[in-house]
Amino acid sequence: MHLSLDGFVAGPNGEMDWINVDEEIFDYVGKRISEGDTALYGRVTYQMMEDYWPTAGDQLTASKHDIEHSKWYSKVHKVVLSKSMKNADLPDTTIISDNLPDRINEIKQSHDGGGKEILLFGSPTATHSLIQLDLIDGYWLFVNPIILGRGIPLFEGIKDKTKLNLVTTRPFSNGVTELNYTVDRI
Predict the structure, then answer these.
(1) Which CATH superfamily is domain 2-151 in?
(2) Is beta strand 93-96 parallel, antiparallel or unpaired with respect to 77-81?
(3) What residue stretches are annotated with the Bacterial bifunctional deaminase-reductase C-terminal domain (predicted)?
(4) Residue 18 and residue 186: Cα distance in Å, rounded?
(5) Which residue has the higher pLDDT, 150 or 87?
């Protein structure tokens, strides 16, 4: 997830035009997500993804990133957290509209031993729900060199301290720094 140095994932009105990405980051992210087989989204982010990625790689002006991510998106299993989409029947997509802890833990258990990650993309509201229910096992963050001053925070509704263990860090030439943490469950 991209965030500003002061901890916001979007501007006050959901703006993300401040996010700094380039081919170096796209290549790095592409390698990691290619190892995952499940993508988790909130409804709004899922609908944005569905509006773009299924055909992005087919466009005449498609970039290398668009082609690669479009292929990955077409084969990855999608999990959407949404109360309004609960009756939707979508191919290779699971809608979770209730009993979030049990449903997420079922998905996690189906991945045990397989080494595959369930990757959460964007979706601040879904992220807040998962944080509050202690269902996030790690944070893969891309800190952008900008201070927004206000906006949608990444960490909202935190009840208790959460200890994190730094797994990797990587600076990119455009000033973005990747921080990859696991959650320390004592």
Answers:
(1) Dihydrofolate Reductase, subunit A (3.40.430.10)
(2) parallel
(3) 3-176
(4) 36
(5) 150
